[in-house]
Amino acid sequence: xxxxxxxxxxxxxxxxxxxxxxxxxxxxxxxxxxxxxxxxxxxxxxxxxxxxxxxxxxxxxxxxxxxxxxxxxxxxxxxxxxxxxxxxxxxxxxxxxxxxxxxxxxxxxxxxxxxxxxxxxxxxxxxxxxxxxxxxxxxxxxxxxxxxxxxxxxxxxxxxxxxxxxxxxxxxxxxxxxxxxxxxxxxxxxxxxxxxxxxxxxxxxxxxxxxxxxxxxxxxxxxxxxxxxxxxxxxxxxxxxxxxxxxxxxxxxxxxxxxxxxxxxxxxxxxxxxxxxxxxxxxxxxxxxxxxxxxxxxxxxxxxxxxxxxxxxxxxxxxxxxxxxxxxxxxxxxxxxxxxxxxxxxxxxxxxxxxxxxxxxxxxxxxxxxxxxxxxxxxxxxxxxxxxxxxxxxx
Amino acid sequence: xxxxxxxxxxxxxxxxxxxxxxxxxxxxxxxxxxxxxxxxxxxxxxxxxxxxxxxxxxxxxxxxxxxxxxxxxxxxxxxxxxxxxxxxxxxxxxxxxxxxxxxxxxxxxxxxxxxxxxxxxxxxxxxxxxxxxxxxxxxxxxxxxxxxxxxxxxxxxxxxxxxxxxxxxxxxxxxxxxxxxxxxxxxxxxxxxxxxxxxxxxxxxxxxxxxxxxxxxxxxxxxxxxxxxxxxxxxxxxxxxxxxxxxxxxxxxxxxxxxxxxxxxxxxxxxxxxxxxxxxxxxx
Lengths: 395, 284
What we know:
heterodimer; A: 395 residues; seven-stranded parallel beta sheet; B: 284 residues; alpha/beta; ten-stranded mixed beta sheet; 11 helices
């Protein structure tokens, strides 16, 4: 039973942690198993950026019956294979070691220890985590990237209100608006992503591109749908090489984009569309299928029409003619200047410098808001002194 | 950087009439239209004896275009005395070229305007490249219609050991590479012996084998650089195909494969297989 003095001291302690940045930023993550989608990358890039800026970052996950080091040593000694379901593999191969080296902790079967000053970030797919953590003292913020995932992973008649979620971070204003329409009580922050430095035109100035067409699709079926009819309809181009980029780690993906000249992109369900931006930054002409949810970087400010930063199509049955035209234009150096200028303007919006500034600004805003909340609680506590026998709520 | 890549355009000419003059004008103007720094381009006509006056008149008619392009001083003519053929005209042109690099332009073909720029970028980026070869538009001599691309196959997966590079295995498949429009290092060309004038029909094939044998890197730049007219009546290849039977043509290629091991032109004659003649007599 804490008295007023104790309560105020605790609150001051939490405020101090916020002021000296010793409060925790906890990111709940799935095990990516070395496959780094844009979804996973966004979370890790955010966490790492804050870590670089001196914030106290930790990645948390849940794995049942995770191997200990001793378990692994025993398996090695006996020559037995590992059960991947009992291992956190993470993102070292997909994104790089520096992301894997962020502190990670398995919170399965143990109480997550948090302070009121801590912030827990939860991806929208983990509604069960939102439910499990609703009584925690810390602030909880959802990282929202894809409305389809939100609707897939939440039971009917349940909303974020049931989980006590009142704040979310999104990548775009359009996503923020969707959240506000569904959950009007949720405060949204927009944090646009950045395109990592590994995506660039080339390592040397003006390195010539090779005529390789990179293919970024979700499935083999989509890839076949493009390539095979291309050769049937365009026998003059039977020599053109395609390179399927599905499944490659980010660094290899970046190298292939650097080398190639044209990228074909098909992803009907994407909410943001990282790959075409990465391809544009690498100087590839993007031929892309317009997704169901049109990314904001694809449309003009007034959303009335598509931008000229790529060659956009709807009909998979006729993309082959577009590809042949683009190949010939590229070989003749007749790709319109308007297109390449628009590509550059688009990617210049997503720089790391801007992202760092935005990330820090966001955390500071959340932090300052939290300090104000604690100050308000202090005032209320002083006005209503806590007697020893009463229980105290810090929230 | 690209400013040490100066290029001589060699235009061999052994006949001349109004039709040729018209074709030559398009070819010549395709050099004047290059986006490349004109101060780095030289044009060198190598003409058969007796055609000097025609070329002089031609250049007078093209003077305004040359002035606009800033290329009045960069054009010259040399006359080849005596018997002439394509290979010997090329060799003579290379010997007299002032530039570090050269290319050959047939009078019925033309360059695309960015070709020299693209080739120069490639040479600067990869100093291991000895010859930059353009992808060609192959066009019908009558209609001008696009028939196919040329030199493109090295960009197909698994055709070559290295994408874009013509290696020995590529050449031996018999695929028909077109070397006019390609940009060569003059020094390398002379050093390995130039074209062999005694080898008819297969002289480019022989040259490419010889070059790859000693490790030269022949790279097809994946850019359209040259428009090549196919099957024009009176052209060199049409003349060869009229002159030689299939058997004789094969014999020239077999000779080329044998002679590519030697730098000097040994003046060998191809051996036409008698066995096949016997088969023919039996109607097989």
